[in-house]
Amino acid sequence: MALAAPAPAAAPPAHRSRTAAVVAPADAGDLYLPALARHGWTSVAVTTPAAHPPADGYLRHLTHRGGLRRTAAHLANLGVQAVIAGSPAGTELADRLADHLHLPGNAPESAGIRRDTGLTGAALLDAGITAPRSIRTTRLTDALNWAAFIQVSGLLLQHPDPAHQHPGYFCRTTEDITYAWHRLQHSTSQPLVLREHLTGTQYRIHTLTGPGHDGSTDHTISSIWSEVRTPGQQVCRADLLSRNGLLARALALYTMRALTALGVRYGPAHATVTFIPDRGPALLSVRTDPYTDFASDVLRRATGHDPIRDTALLLTTGRRYENPPQRQAHVTKVALLPQRDGALDPALLRTITTLPTVAVTTELHPGTPVLPGQIAGWLLLVADDSRAINQDHHVIRAAENLGLYGSPA
Fold it and tell me: What angle do CA 236, 310, 314 make, to 5 degrees?
């Protein structure tokens, strides 16, 4: 994501209120609108011709038709003093617009690298930073030859875009790779990434970056989540990790080094990092688009951070919320993952949503149809004792087996 704060070298025309440009706003990106308004800022939406119209509330709607200089001139005439990506699709354009307007943001020359897991891994390895070995290619034969050369027990074939909805396919054999390739590649010009599968625990690390007191880039770690994944690479459980331990410190130091190497200079980022005991941390992907969670209010109380609120504060004032002492409460997100078609059973749904540690859930209604392999909803569990969370997690999984999604097979 590219964000921008006022820069003395490029003073915009005088306007009654300050204005931010939100590039390709969607979903979480639209939440910047009220967050910026609370600081007295208005927002302009920048979209592409193929995009859906932005939500109501934007001061102006500009369509970017490929001319960077023209779009930047329109924004300058509107008095835009900040540029921010409103979705994954807006990150590269936001980076380049911010640079063209002489506003701080992420490095534009590495914008494409951050949007491609194959290029990200190669850039980190070139910088001497641990990352998974991979090949990025449009040709199945290249992928198969590389797999035969590297000779590892497991590989992951995935789309290069870290925001792609499919998490990828785990592969052990040539047949696995071939099958996955034909499922993922929809045109012969579409590159895919085949990388070694690293078996360590995966962590989702949220950060906020801005200038430090000495003018250098300063990364703040706002939260670290330890993820449990299914064989199909879907997250089924995530536990908030204490920032005080040695593991958290190792993950934080590595992530800050990787973000610097990838040109992340301003605004929020969320990275997926694995930890292998004999190799240490290794970054799998990084995203700089806006992020929000289904239980932002509860998580704000648990972590002291809110990605949208914190970004708006940095953008409008240059300040960041102080990193508060982390609460001792244990916090866990649990996904409901049906294995077949069905519908949410009213009695069992009531059982799991009223468990002692369940603080909040996504919208879950009795009778709602569910599909195999698609997350049906999330529950947030909070407790002072991790054993209470594990006990309720066991009840949730038992309810799934007993017929939460309909009569058990």
Answer: 140
**229: enclosing H helix or E strand:** strand 217-229
Q: In sequence order, which residues have a C-beta less than 8 Å from that of residue 103 and are 6 or more positions away?
A: 4, 5, 6, 7, 10, 81, 82, 83
| C-alpha atoms less than 13 angstroms from C-alpha of 115 in its C-beta half-sphere | 21
The DSSP-derived string for 89-151 is GGHHHHHHHHHHTT---S-GGGHHHHT-HHHHHHHHHHTT-----EEEES-HHHHHHHHHHH-
pLDDT (tens digit per residue) in 75-99: 999 999 999 999 999 999 999 999 9
Q: Give the per-residue pLDDT at 1.
A: 43
Residue 405: the pLDDT is 95
For 288, counting Cβ atoms within 10 Å of its Cβ (0-12 exposed, 13-18 middle, 19+ buried), the class is buried
Conformation bin of residue 314: beta by default, left when phi > 0, alpha when psi is -120 to 50 = alpha
Q: Determine if residue 2 is left, alpha or beta; phi over 0 gives left, psi from -120 to 50 gives alpha, anything else beta.
A: beta
Catalogue the E-assigned strands of 2-51.
Answer: 19-23, 42-47
* Token couple for 13: 């025309």
Percentage of residues in the chain with pLDDT exceeding 90?
77
Q: For the chain, what is the mean pLDDT? A: 91
Taking CA atoms, 359 is separated from 234, 249, 309, 404, in Å, by: 23, 28, 21, 19
pTM greater than 0.70 (yes/no):
yes
Mean pLDDT of the 13-25 span: 78
Q: Could you give the CA distance from residue 231 to residue 189 in angstroms, rounded to a whole number? A: 29
User: CA 262 to CA 112: how far, in whole Å?
Assistant: 10
What pLDDT is recorded for position 10? 41
Yes or no: say if 202 and 284 are a contact pair by the CB < 8 Å rule: yes
199 — phi, psi (to 5°)? -90, 0
Average pLDDT over residues 380-408: 94
* Terminal Cα-to-Cα distance of the chain (whole angstroms): 45
Instruction: Write out the two tokens for 139.
Output: 């040709």
Question: Which of the residue ranges 119-123, 286-290, 312-316, 325-329 would you say has the lowest mean pLDDT?
Answer: 325-329
Beta strands in 248-372 (DSSP E): 267-276, 280-287, 330-336, 342-343, 358-361, 369-370
pLDDT value, residue 326: 60
User: Does residue 313 register a pLDDT over 70?
Assistant: yes
d(CA 230, CA 368): 23
